[in-house]
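User: Second chain of the day. Same drill as before.
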Amino acid sequence: MSAALPRERTKPENFLRHLEPLRGALESYCRRSLHDPGAVGDVLQAAVANAFRDFHRYVEGTNFRAWIFRYVTLEIRTANRERARRRNVPLEGYRHQEHHAGRIPVSVEPGASVPGLASRRGETCHPSEESSS
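Assistant: Same format as last time:
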Protein backbone atom coordinates (compact mmCIF):
# COMPACT_ATOMS: atom_id res chain seq x y z
CA MET A 1 0.00 0.00 0.00
CA SER A 2 1.21 3.41 -0.78
CA ALA A 3 0.81 6.19 1.73
CA ALA A 4 -1.35 9.02 0.52
CA LEU A 5 0.64 12.19 0.20
CA PRO A 6 -1.05 15.30 1.50
CA ARG A 7 -2.01 17.53 -1.38
CA GLU A 8 -0.33 20.89 -1.58
CA ARG A 9 -2.52 23.81 -0.56
CA THR A 10 -3.49 26.40 -3.11
CA LYS A 11 -2.57 30.05 -2.66
CA PRO A 12 -6.09 31.08 -1.47
CA GLU A 13 -6.31 28.17 0.97
CA ASN A 14 -2.89 28.91 2.41
CA PHE A 15 -3.64 32.63 2.72
CA LEU A 16 -6.98 32.01 4.48
CA ARG A 17 -5.37 29.48 6.82
CA HIS A 18 -3.02 32.22 8.02
CA LEU A 19 -5.64 35.00 7.99
CA GLU A 20 -8.58 33.38 9.81
CA PRO A 21 -7.11 33.39 13.35
CA LEU A 22 -6.24 37.09 13.00
CA ARG A 23 -9.55 38.47 11.69
CA GLY A 24 -10.79 39.69 15.08
CA ALA A 25 -7.48 41.31 16.00
CA LEU A 26 -7.24 43.02 12.59
CA GLU A 27 -10.76 44.40 12.89
CA SER A 28 -10.17 45.65 16.45
CA TYR A 29 -6.91 47.31 15.43
CA CYS A 30 -8.62 48.93 12.48
CA ARG A 31 -11.53 50.18 14.61
CA ARG A 32 -9.12 51.73 17.15
CA SER A 33 -6.82 53.34 14.61
CA LEU A 34 -9.21 54.75 12.02
CA HIS A 35 -10.54 58.27 12.36
CA ASP A 36 -13.69 57.25 10.47
CA PRO A 37 -15.41 54.27 12.15
CA GLY A 38 -17.58 53.74 9.08
CA ALA A 39 -14.55 52.89 6.94
CA VAL A 40 -13.43 49.76 8.85
CA GLY A 41 -14.85 47.29 6.33
CA ASP A 42 -13.47 49.12 3.31
CA VAL A 43 -10.01 49.53 4.82
CA LEU A 44 -9.81 45.87 5.86
CA GLN A 45 -11.01 44.72 2.45
CA ALA A 46 -8.42 46.85 0.66
CA ALA A 47 -5.61 45.72 3.00
CA VAL A 48 -6.50 42.03 2.66
CA ALA A 49 -6.79 42.35 -1.14
CA ASN A 50 -3.34 43.96 -1.33
CA ALA A 51 -1.84 41.35 0.98
CA PHE A 52 -3.38 38.53 -1.06
CA ARG A 53 -2.02 40.09 -4.25
CA ASP A 54 1.47 40.10 -2.69
CA PHE A 55 1.18 36.75 -0.89
CA HIS A 56 3.82 35.29 -3.19
CA ARG A 57 6.31 37.55 -1.35
CA TYR A 58 5.46 36.12 2.06
CA VAL A 59 8.04 33.61 3.25
CA GLU A 60 6.37 30.60 4.86
CA GLY A 61 7.44 30.13 8.45
CA THR A 62 7.98 33.82 9.15
CA ASN A 63 5.68 36.07 11.17
CA PHE A 64 2.44 36.31 9.14
CA ARG A 65 0.83 38.46 11.84
CA ALA A 66 3.44 41.20 11.44
CA TRP A 67 3.28 40.86 7.66
CA ILE A 68 -0.51 41.32 7.42
CA PHE A 69 -0.61 44.06 10.08
CA ARG A 70 1.84 46.04 7.95
CA TYR A 71 -0.68 46.03 5.09
CA VAL A 72 -3.51 47.05 7.42
CA THR A 73 -1.40 49.82 8.97
CA LEU A 74 -0.51 51.27 5.58
CA GLU A 75 -4.16 51.20 4.50
CA ILE A 76 -5.24 52.88 7.76
CA ARG A 77 -2.67 55.65 7.25
CA THR A 78 -3.90 56.21 3.72
CA ALA A 79 -7.56 56.36 4.83
CA ASN A 80 -6.79 58.75 7.71
CA ARG A 81 -4.74 60.99 5.41
CA GLU A 82 -7.54 61.09 2.82
CA ARG A 83 -10.12 61.91 5.50
CA ALA A 84 -7.96 64.71 6.87
CA ARG A 85 -7.47 66.09 3.37
CA ARG A 86 -11.24 66.13 2.78
CA ARG A 87 -11.82 67.88 6.12
CA ASN A 88 -9.20 70.58 5.41
CA VAL A 89 -10.78 71.82 2.20
CA PRO A 90 -11.30 75.57 2.67
CA LEU A 91 -14.85 76.84 2.76
CA GLU A 92 -15.84 78.86 -0.29
CA GLY A 93 -16.14 82.55 0.39
CA TYR A 94 -14.31 82.42 3.72
CA ARG A 95 -11.48 84.90 4.00
CA HIS A 96 -9.15 85.04 6.97
CA GLN A 97 -9.49 88.85 7.09
CA GLU A 98 -13.19 88.51 7.98
CA HIS A 99 -12.19 86.89 11.24
CA HIS A 100 -12.40 89.65 13.90
CA ALA A 101 -11.27 89.15 17.49
CA GLY A 102 -11.82 85.41 17.38
CA ARG A 103 -15.40 85.74 16.08
CA ILE A 104 -16.70 84.80 12.67
CA PRO A 105 -19.23 87.32 11.37
CA VAL A 106 -22.74 85.88 11.21
CA SER A 107 -25.78 87.57 9.75
CA VAL A 108 -29.07 86.71 11.44
CA GLU A 109 -32.51 88.06 10.64
CA PRO A 110 -33.69 90.46 13.37
CA GLY A 111 -35.82 88.63 15.91
CA ALA A 112 -34.75 85.16 14.70
CA SER A 113 -33.79 82.64 17.35
CA VAL A 114 -30.46 80.95 16.89
CA PRO A 115 -29.93 77.65 18.73
CA GLY A 116 -27.00 77.79 21.11
CA LEU A 117 -26.90 81.58 21.28
CA ALA A 118 -28.36 83.75 24.02
CA SER A 119 -32.07 84.15 23.52
CA ARG A 120 -33.39 85.89 26.65
CA ARG A 121 -33.55 89.65 26.88
CA GLY A 122 -30.42 91.20 28.32
CA GLU A 123 -28.06 88.30 27.45
CA THR A 124 -25.26 88.69 24.97
CA CYS A 125 -23.62 86.22 22.67
CA HIS A 126 -20.01 87.07 23.51
CA PRO A 127 -18.47 87.28 26.98
CA SER A 128 -16.56 90.42 26.01
CA GLU A 129 -19.85 92.22 25.39
CA GLU A 130 -21.31 91.38 28.81
CA SER A 131 -21.90 94.32 31.09
CA SER A 132 -20.02 94.09 34.36
CA SER A 133 -22.31 94.02 37.39
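The chain has four helices and no strands.

User: Great, on to the next one.
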